[in-house]
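Q: What structure does this chain adopt?
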Amino acid sequence: MTENDKKLPKPPKTLSREARKWWRRIVAEWEVEAEGLLLLQAALECWDRYVEARELLAADGPVVTNPDSGVQRVHPAAHVARDSLREFRQLWRQLGLVSDFETQHEAK
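A:
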């Protein structure tokens, strides 16, 4: 069996179509150990949550109003988006997949 014949791990079915594309590209281009696959799955699940939260924010706006009291507050999806993106970036770094762009801009 040659290196090219090596069977690549399939993406988890819980991931979105976009995240599954990322999975395939990453496992094809990088050597990812079993522990790394768990981190990759967690990172891509965070990305999916981030995208879903951003879609909710785009549809609903950044502020929600309580129909009973009229009190306005930040949309809960804003917190989900923030936290999911933070977790995604942390896991991405753990995997060693930080982009050159991100590295350059964090150094400043």
